[in-house]
Amino acid sequence: MVSHLDERSTLSLPIRRNTARSIISTSSTTRRHRHTRSHTGGSTNTQSVFPWFSSGNVEIVITSGRKEQSYLLHKLILSQCSGFFDASTSEGWSRAQPTQSTQQQQHGGLPMIGEDEVADASFLQNGSTTPSRDGRRWKYELDWGTSEQDIPMLVQKDPAASLFGGDHGAPQPPPVRNKPQSGFFRTMTNLSSVNVQQAPPDPADEVIRDYDNLFRIFYNYPPSLDAVHIATAYVECKRLLQLADMYDALEVVGPRIDHHLLRFQGRLWKQIAKYPPSYLKLGYLARSRVIFSEAMVHVVGQWPAGANQLRGQIDNAVMELIEDKVDELDETKSRVEAKLFRLTLTTSRGERVTPHNSMLDWLAVSLFRQWIAENTTPLPAPILKDRSRGSSRGNGATQNPLPAPPMNTGRIYRLLGTAGQAYLPHDEVKKFLKLRPEDYNRESLKRFERRMDEVKNLAKDAVKPLMRSFLELDLGRDGGGLPYLTCTRLEDADFPWDD
Predict the structure, then answer these.
(1) Are 316 and 446 a contacting pair, CB within 8 Å?
(2) What pLDDT shows up at residue 331?
(3) Are strands 58-64 and 136-143 parallel, antiparallel or unpaired?
(4) pTM of the full predicted structure?
(5) N or C: which end of the chain has fewer CB within 10 A?
(6) Residue-wise pLDDT tens digits, 18-72
(7) Rounded to 5 degrees, what are φ and ψ at 177?
């Protein structure tokens, strides 16, 4: 048998050329492979050092304490992701200067195609941006202000003294860190450092990390955020969102923060239940519908418990939304409460029970209504004088009595929705019926409990609108032990950032 070489396989083999590649030939004959970018926000495939783009035209220097981090980025990417950079690089605010190649063109020289231009061509193929060819350069430095109250902010500087101007030549990337040891020595190093206590995080590292994560998100690289401890992830996401808010980049950073936190699933819902005001503010900054809705249900159910943590710290639109949802919940509770007080039993003839036609059944309805009134009405203000205030009145100082705290009836409605022995159990019913010895016997007790169960079933149906839960957190049958209602629902038109 004679084997023949397939012509199609011959044509598909690449031809190695020794000549220099031009921009056009690079785009048509070569194909560069890049590392897979992860959009999950975790540590998988996350680069330890942010890429140094030789085609960049914006130099950013972050100085925090004795540490300094430099970036060479692109004006197009920064202006698309941040309103701050879009405005500061405009004609009216820009302090940009022409590059060396632009100066050569102005003096009659011919531009030369060097390694940077070839790198720019490969970046056009692999990246998602276009390097600036207008010959302008920008430089920003982190300004810490003059006092501790000042917020560090990027300030545009004269790029003449930067790595773009002068006789410094082509921009040089920052020094590359040595790679960690591999193999046996790396394993022994990890084992020896297991019991070593880690030092507290340096504020300088936090500032540099926040800016590094911000630029990573701008270039669609996964940010370096904690994917194990949700409390640490919350702090890191909060700092990153505040930084994005300063530079008008919430629309770009918010979705990445939302995706990262939602990976925690059940742990996230439990943390929101513990700290609903904090996650409400975070969800608002991240424009996260899921986190914002979850926190809003808890805030409205416990209102006004979290009012002090929200007033003056969040937009008025959110406060108005909270007040509207609280009013809607109060109206629903008022309608349900009116139904509960109108509940009654009927006789075999279809008549309402009264002391004349069925004394025992009427006592069951009266006991139920009394229990509702006692548990849904706030305690009255004390009438007796307080002796401890006598000395202060003698000194001429008057103290007004403190108002009673608002009563949260969520726990009462949950008991009504559970029915059975959750409230007015057998012992209380028996104790109540013994107040009338002439009516107390075994048969009357069984009948009284049977009629009481009928009232409880009617009440269970009446409170169904309040028993709904719009939480992602699984509350179980007994409501998860929450002492407040979770029936608040946000519609699509309720989110304050969609206006």
Answers:
(1) no
(2) 95
(3) parallel
(4) 0.73
(5) N
(6) 433 333 333 333 334 444 444 444 444 445 577 788 888 899 999 887 888 899 9
(7) -75, 150
The amino acid occupying position 330 is D
The residues that bridge with 97 in the sheet, in sequence order, are 137
Q: Per-residue pLDDT tens for 435-478?
A: 988 888 999 999 999 999 999 999 999 999 999 999 999 887 66
Cα–Cα distance, 289 to 291 (Å, whole number): 6
Give me the residues paired with residue 138 across strands.
Answer: 58
Q: What Rg do the C-alpha atoms of the chain give, in angstroms? A: 35
Q: Which two tokens stand for residue 355?
A: 């002391």
**137 sits in which H/E element:** strand 136-143
Tell me the two tokens of residue 142.
């982190």
User: Lowest-pLDDT range, 35-44, 220-229, 338-347, 368-377?
Assistant: 35-44
Amino acid at 216: R
Task: Tally the residues of the chain.
Answer: 499
What is the rounded CA–CA span in Å between residue 98 and residue 109? 15
The C-alpha atoms of residue 234 and residue 227 are separated, in whole angstroms, by 10
Task: Count the alpha carbons within 13 Å of 103 in the hemisphere toward its beta carbon.
Answer: 8
Record the tokens describing residue 130, joined without a space: 């276009």
> DSSP characters for 233-273?
HHHHHHHHHHHHHHTT-HHHHHHHHHHHHHTTTHHHHHHHH
Distance from C-alpha of 87 to C-alpha of 312, rounded to nearest angstrom: 28
Contacts for 402-405 with beta carbons within 8 Å, 24 or more apart? 404/378, 404/379
Nearest of 66, 103, 74 to residue 204 by alpha carbon: 66
- Mean pLDDT of the 376-386 span: 69
